[in-house]
Amino acid sequence: MTQSILNPDKFHSSGRSVSEEKLMVAVRVRPLRGDEGPRIVHVVSDKMLVLEEEADVRRDVLRQRRVNDKHYVYDRVFGEDSTQEDVYEVICAPLVGDTLNGIAGAIFAYGATGAGKTHTMSGLMSRALNHLFTSISESDDTDSFDVKLSYIEIYNENIRDLLNPGAGPLELRDEGGSGPPVVAGLSEVRALDASHVAELLARGDRSRTAEPTYANQHSSRGHALLSVSVSKTVSNGIQRGRLFLIDLAGSERAGLRARRLEGAHINRSLLALGNCIMALSGGARYVNYRDSKLTRLLREVLGGRCRTAMVAHVSPAATHRDTTRSTLHYAQRASAITNKVERELIETPMHLSQYRNVIHELRDEIARLKTKMKDDRSKSRDEQLKINEVLSKEECEEKSAHLKSLRESIVSTFKQQMRLRRRLMELDSHLLGLALDAERQHAAISHWEARFNRLYKPISFTGSRLSTQQSYRGGTGASSTASGGSGSERAEAEVAVEQAWAELAAVEREQETARAERLRIERQLEQVRLRGAQLEQELPAHIENGPEREVLSLVCRVHELEADKLALQGERAARAHELRRRDLALQRRDAQRRLTDEIITRQRRALEEYGIGVQQDLAQLYELYQQEIHASTYTDSNDYYTPYRLPPISLSMSELAWSESSSGSGRGSSSGSGGDRRLPQLAPTPRPRTRYSQASATTLKRYSSDDSLVITAPRASDRAAP
Ligand SMILES: Nc1ncnc2c1ncn2[C@@H]1O[C@H](COP(=O)(O)OP(=O)(O)OP(=O)(O)O)[C@@H](O)[C@H]1O
Question: Of the four listed, 247, 426, 525, 665, which is most buried by Cβ atoms within 10 Å?
Fold first, then answer.
């Protein structure tokens, strides 16, 4: 029977938020089938197994065997008679506990085709989800959990949505930074209960690609990744735990012709996975996850922030000796991988005014409760005694029980109010975030419209978004040259705009849902507040004894502490908000600066190319500008933004310019005087055109972080005749 898993410390002794942990590696040996020949894998204990290697027939068989047989030790070994429940309890149950406590966990099944991966994973998936829902339903705050599922298959390097199999292949997109890539357009289904989940899983499993192989009549031909996300509303944000259950496709020997492509894809991604395992276990500083979609997606699972378990599967039969050896070897290497396990808390970015409102309401409530206590105190002591004398013992008990239930109702109403208020604040910030997302999509659309000169042109569509997409496909009749951009750019624009519209539509749908939810919560909150007010009305008539008054003052104190806590959180959120705002402003400035740099460089290049002299004051400004940019080369410590910089006025540049001019080939010497003063030269001016291009490109490249910005000189034939 699975244990209760809502206690965060039950499964992790360390209270630290980040802990370095080794991958847990288990091996499961599936039962031997009648047609498979002799058994060569022997489970010695729950941590060790032995693989019999082929005996050298020229020598004493028994002795040789003893020398060749290889012992393998893992965190856990499951023998042929192990049950699904055994594997679940040891490998998966602790990770389900983690998920509920905001920690990401992952289990992946590894092994050759027919070794038992799908058998194990289907058992784990159904048990994990049942366990999850049972634990949530047993918790005090069932309503604060939100469970979502997504289920994908990587088949032939295409990502398929198993919960929405009709949709086309999905794109895997890097979001920048070091975060994991996202699968664009993937459906995330809110799971209501265990039976709903069972239905979703069955639907997903039906959509998986399966075919017979030499070792398995029902072989999964794609990697399946089930992701369960459990969000829980906590005082300072949303705690999010995730559980990834991954059933990898099994490697197989080169098979039927028809399966060659899929086999190649499977083997390639497994090879990439193997390489990652080798690199990570060897402590490599650079791990290449980019070789396959599988490894890109598993980045969090291997070497990331997940608590990960690998269940390697082997057949005990002699016919599979080579694949078994290879699986056991990788499993052993994997046990050296370390992950940095971390609790994930998405702090709710709330607007300061939201905090102020809630704090204000709380303080009102405290004041009301305190007044009631004061009123009550005003009753004379004699009066109280008289009342008590008149009441019988039963009546006293009844009254005290009533008071107790009244007090509990007040506390529970207060808790409900706080929960609903927080939910409202969350929804408000969610709506703010969605507005930002929508802005981002609009910006992407504007970008492409500007790229194709459509930003300030009336687009011939009557409120239809599709017609805007059409315009990139040439639907508006504008020629490719008129609107600019090559064919491939056009295709890129088409995809980008289509995606931006699709995402915008999804954001708008989400906004509608969030607004409806907000309205519902607002109504609920109003009802709870009314109920609270009614309960408070009942209080003055009843409170006349010390302990009850004490309890009431405690309730007040809790309210006060809650208000203080919110005030502190509000201040912190305001600071974080300000930092984010400044960050965004800096990013915008940086983008503007890059554009300005490019424009200035191009203009300077043109002036230099055509031998146009500039006014002295402009030349001085250019120099100042260069010095400024040059200075920023040494002060800019932000690695993410390496802005394109103008070549600084450096000794080497002057030397280059000098050597060119002294050899008589330079046109842009800085030795010009007065109004004819030339700009500091950007690059040497070679006579043969080919040398020129190479030299300037190389020189500029030294300063440019982006090759696309390297400017090449116009061809001599392009220049106007004097
Ligand atoms: N531990 C087990 N107990 C009983 N039967 C098992 C066990 N493991 C595997 N099997 C059976 O062996 C067969 C192959 O197993 P399974 O489909 O899980 O292999 P697989 O590793 O997922 O293969 P593939 O990579 O080709 O999909 C199935 O019929 C399955 O029911």
Answer: 247
**Number of residues written out for the chain:** 722
Query: CA–CA separation, 100 vs 16, rounded Å?
Result: 17
Own/partner long-range contacts of 32-38 (Cβ < 8 Å, ≥24 apart): 32/80, 32/315, 32/316, 32/317, 33/317, 36/315, 36/317, 36/318, 36/319, 36/320, 37/317, 37/318, 37/319, 38/317, 38/318
- Which residues have C-beta within 8 Å of that of residue 3, sequence separation ≥ 6? 10, 93, 97
The Cα 40–Cα 32 span in angstroms is 10
In Å, how far are 167, 585, 626 from 444, measured between CA atoms?
23, 18, 32
Q: Are residues 279 and 390 in the same domain?
A: no
What is the Å distance from ligand 1's center to 217 Cα? 9
Residue-wise pLDDT tens digits, 149-207: 999 998 888 898 998 887 778 888 775 555 678 888 788 888 888 888 888 889 888 88
Closest ligand 1 atom to 80 CA = 1
| pLDDT bracket for residue 501 (50, 70, 90) | confident
- Domain check: are 557 and 649 in the same one? no
**What are all long-range contacts of 133-138, with beta carbons under 8 Å and residues at least 24 apart?**
133/191, 133/193, 133/194, 133/197, 134/2, 134/194, 135/4, 135/5, 135/6, 135/96, 135/97, 135/100, 136/100, 138/4, 138/6
Task: Write the CB contacts of 436 (distance below 8 Å, at least 6 apart in sequence).
Answer: none
113 Cβ below 6 A of ligand 1? yes
Neighbours of 95 (CB within 10 A): 26
Express each pLDDT in 513-548 by its tens digit. 888 998 898 888 888 878 877 776 666 544 555 566
Q: Compute the distance between CA of residue 602 and CA of residue 608 in angstroms, rounded to an integer.
A: 10
Please name the amino acid found at residue 604. R
- Closest Cα to residue 152, out of 47, 223, 103? 223
Q: Which residues contact 716 (CB under 8 A, 6 or more apart)?
A: 689
d(CA 229, CA 243): 6
Residues making up the annotated binding site for ATP are 111-118
Last residue of a domain, one of 347, 363, 386: 347
> Is the Cβ atom of 313 under 6 angstroms away from ligand 1?
yes
Q: Is the CB of 317 under 6 A from ligand 1?
A: no
Regarding whether 382 and 324 lie in a shared domain, the answer is: no
Task: State the pairing for strand pair 307-314/105-111.
Answer: parallel
602 occurs within a structural domain: no
3-state helix, strand, coil in the chain (%, to 5): 55, 15, 30
Same domain as 357, residue 326: no
pLDDT per position as a tens digit, 381-418: 555 566 566 656 677 777 777 777 877 787 788 778 77
Give the count of beta carbons closer than 10 Å to the beta carbon of residue 565. 13
Instruction: Find out whether the beta carbon of 115 lies less than 6 Å from any atom of ligand 1.
Output: yes
Pocket lining: 124 vs ligand 1, CB cutoff 6 Å:
no
DSSP string, 219-236: EE-SEEEEEEEEEEEETT
Name the H helices within 282-340: 293-297, 321-334
> Are 88 and 229 within one domain?
yes
Give the residue carrying structure tokens 């042109």.
Answer: 457
For a ligand 1 pocket test, name from 27, 28, 29, 30 the mutation site with the most ligand atoms within 8 angstroms of its C-beta: 30
The pLDDT value recorded for residue 379 is 52
- Please say which residue of 293, 315, 347 terminates a domain: 347
Residue 207 lies in a domain: yes
The parent domain of residue 435 ranges over: 352-584
